[in-house]
What does this fold into?
Amino acid sequence: MKKFLVIILTLLISVGSPAFAAESKREFKKSRRSTGPLMSDKWYKLNNLLNEEISTIKALGKLGPRLKFRLIELYSEQIKLIKEKENAVFLGSVGTKKRRKKSVYFRKSKSLFLKTQKMGLTLIKRHPRFKYKGSLFYTLALNSRDFGGDKNTEYFLINALKFTPKGLPKLHSIKTTLAEFYYNKKEYDKAIRYYTDVLANTRDEWHSKHLYNTSWCYFKKKDYNKAIELSKASFKYGNHKKYVSLRSQVLDSIGLFHIFAKRVEEGVDFYLKNEDLPMRYLVKMAKKTTGEGSFKDTRFILVAALKNAKQKKQIDEQIMLRLNEMEIYRTFKQYDLFYGVALSLEAIHLKTPLKAEDNADAVTKIKSLVGFQQVRLTKNLKMDVEEHDPKKRKRVLKYFDILASFEPHNRDQYHYFQGETTYALGLYQMAASYYQKGFEFSRKNSNLKKVTAVPLKGKKAVKPSKEFLKIEVEKMKLKRKFMDSLLAVLEKDGLKKSEQNKLTKYTYENHLSYWPIDKRSRKLYSKLFNLYLGENNALDSLRVLELYVKNYKADQEKQRSMLTLQIDFYIKKKNSDKLAFWINKLQSGYLSFKPDYIEKATLVLGGLLFQGFQKLEDAGKKEEALKGYISLYENEKYPKDIKGKSALRTSLIHLKLGQIENSLEWMNKSLLQFNNKKAFEQKDKMIAAAGRFSLLQSFKYSSILSTTLLKRFCKKKFKEKEQLYTNSVYHQLLENNLSAAMFNQKLGVKCSIKQASRDDLSLQILNFLTKNRKYKSFFKYYAKNVNNPKLKNSFTEAMLEMYWDTRYHGLKNLTISLKTLLKKDQSNPKVSEKTRLKISQIFNFEKFEKDFKNKRFGKLDHSKKFDQPKFNTQLEANLLSLKELGEAAKPLLASGNPNVMLGVYVVLTDKTNQVVKVVQDFTPQGVPKEFVQGFKKAMQGLTRPLANQTISYKQAGVKIISKHKIFSLFNTEFGNDRYLRRKVGYRYPASYLSSPIDTSGGIKQ
Amino acid sequence: MKKLLILIIFITGCSQYKIETDLSSSKEDVLSNESFLRYSSDRIEKAMVQNKELSAIAHCHNGSIEKGQEILKTELDKRKNQADYWNQVGTCFYLNHQFVKAEYFYQLSLQTASKNKTAYAPAHNNLGVIYLRQRHFESAYTEFNKALKINKRFQTPRYNLAHLYLQFGQNEKGLNEFKYLSRTAAQDPGILAGIAISYTLLNDLKKALSYFSKIPRKFLSRPDVATHYAMALYQSKNYEQAFLILKNRQPTQIRSIRRTGNILLKLIEKELESQKLAKR
It folds into this structure.
């Protein structure tokens, strides 16, 4: 004992001294650097203390039972520390390759345990009356329980109880350990026996625990009411601060106790009263009652729980309840309740989203049920139960909607299930609708494109994660499934045609969009193309075709066929813009079309455009049409035929607008574009244009165009040819351009115009020149055509007419020229006899005039002495002259040529009057006045017949004028005013005073 | 200034090649219902308002031949089947002294009438006018008569015939036609002059002078009227007045009138000289 006290003192001093502290610290550090896992500071501190005390005790040499017991106690504590460290090493080895057998890890503690137990048993053997024998057994019991596998625990505890003096508090601990030992060994009767002693001590802070353990012992012994009682007592003590609280353990078990005690309502009530969040316990209860098969109790618990949660507005509680309800109702096959719960849960979720684990739980449970129900629903159909229950179908479909609410990202999947369900039921339209919805969702919610898209400038490309790609692959698989299903629907006959078409387009479009290069897509391109084109939707058909071309370059032949159909469509619809676009593209080598096809298409295009502009023209939009035609003409890509036609239309519009110069210009352009055949096909319009030029008062352009056309179609035979020829020549005459007319006239021979027509035209020219008094041109024409036998007589006739005109107008030089030419013709056998006679008459008349007109008639000698014989001779000579004149006039008067006859009468009248006047005026000189009177009277009588003669000449002239209705230069010679007219050189200007008539309709005043 | 002078000379020169027969009132115009020829510019302007369909020909008569022709071109499609249309096209050319083209369109007018199975007097009359110009007097005579045969009520062919008669000494016939016309428009200065000239040529100087005196003073200076009036005065031996009339006549480039006027003037001057000498 002394030694023990010394040790204690030594220890206390050493612990308190600085030297000890420094050494302790070094040791501590040393031990921390030792191998093995790093333990807490407390562990090291305790370990050092234990080691130092053990070392100190050992250093004392031979030890007594008290110090040995102390050493056993220290070793017992050390076992705990060692085991703690070994456990850490053991746990650290979990999952490593070097892990060994478990016992290997705990060898040290085991060894020390065995050593300690041996020491204890040796101590008891050597010192049977050792004062602390009971405590030693208790220490050995605890070591056996904690480190020795409980083999000797009961033995040590009973001995500890046996050798511990009565009244010591240690006894309570030993009984408690013994009660717990039996409790653990499920020896509930023994446990109750010791617990009964233990429970007597209410001062133990663990009293609540002992009550709890005892309640379980009674429960196990099926004394449920006792169990409830003790449990409630444990709950009550546990609520007190002096005692350890076992609240949760009691709550966990008390529900069970009530169920077994058939006091469910009381149990529910306990929870509702004592727990603010009782759901987990109530659910536990409900599950238990479910397990017991009591729907009534279960339903009671659940309804009460829901009511409570709702009252307290505990959402989490409600969620927990609902989730468990589903499981429970499923167990009880209460599907309506299940459905109600699912709807409620969805409503909650939509308001306040469920936690992930709850959500997953809900999904799993609903999925499980709907899968089951779906199978049942479709199974009936497969079993030839034709009619399915629509209510059930609707419910299944709704479950998928609910699931989609919980997993919105998987909505496509649920739509797919909905589609599959309705498809299985033969509701193809509905199935298609679900498939479409699902596909649309999937399409809109795919992030793959966003992730793989080219990054914005300045931003790095995002590399998608493997997980992300995996999900996307799954989504893509689902999309494919949608397509498969939609295609399957399309194969059924359950849809109306319009819906079928719509769905077909949708399906094919999306198929091509997602799998543009795909065995099935390859066939769909043409199908979709045909569908669109059949609906006159050229825009989409073309888009499909272009997609096909892009993805299948090897299918050119098929693509050509498709594009041909497309182009045919444009042609049919007269869509020139599109056609033009495609022709350009084909020309650039697109799809390797053959040149002859491109050429044909180009022709058609030109024709279409042309027709378009014609429509504009017909609608009166001439300016727009004009622009269009000109653009066609100027566009090099169009064939010459189109350009020619465009130029022709341009010309005709200009013509319509009265723009003749432009019209001719474009007509010439059109002729340049046309080949001979095409030009000839258009000749009617061109000839008409030439005619219209003249109607628009432009003979020059009419002639130019006529000439151009005649030259162009020179070798052709057509009915208007002669008219063209005539216009070519005659219209130049109207423009007073004889040279051009004569030049064009030459085309007659070259272009095989009939001789008769050419002669006729020549005659027309001649007549024109004559009629219009174009004498200069006449002589020019005469010079060129004098040897034309067909014209000869006409030339001469014309000159005869001109002869009288030039005489009337006093154009002496011209008259002389004409006479020279007529002189030649007088003996020309090519000139008709009749005409030659006329020439003779003119020359005879000329001679007559020459012989008599200037000859002085009525010469009488006015000598101072009247010589009668001489006078008589002279008078006789005058009368003879008149007679001679009359004789000379006779053949001319008999000629029947009114001009000549009138001219002759003029001479006859003049000369006779001259004689009459001279004779009447004569007064004999140197004779008596009476003689003169008698002489004058005699001369009056003598000349009266002559005077009468003049009157008859005049009457004859007037008669000729009247008979022949002639207006010749001699007309005025037969009136009373002839002397006045002659005197003043008078000619009345009738042509300057004449007036045209402007209208037959009258001019309003 | 120089340019203005040239323009004035040009205008004056042009006007001298035709006889200005413009009348300012329809009452004194025997042809007022048939032709704008003797319409004054004011009358044409007013008439155009009331005769919109005749605006083209009115323009031609009013000196705007190009404009008139352009209008006619624009009316082509609308009026090409009307003989009247082609007649008016011809008249515009006639007024522009393009007689060849005028004749072409008058012929076209007749063809159009023929196609329409109608007879069309104005084109015949107008062809007569052209033939007068071309000195085909018989043809002119024929055409005027054709016109009259188609429609006796037309005054113009009669008016033209009257002039033709006077040119060729058939003064009685001329007088008859003028008198006939005067029943419609007794105050028409042209008709008065025609009657006066007829009487002059028929040597009925009293009546001739009487009719000349009825002609408004402003028309007496017209070269043809003045010449004829002087001729009548000369015949009446009223040399002084004849001299005054001739001296006041408007200048003209129409050769026949100018020549006669000049000869007459010399004769009158000679007579006046003789009178002076006799007085001395």
Notes: The first helix of chain A runs from residue 2 to 16. Chain A touches chain B through 54 residues (CB under 8 Å). The mean pLDDT of chain A is 88. DSSP finds 49 helices and no strands in chain A.
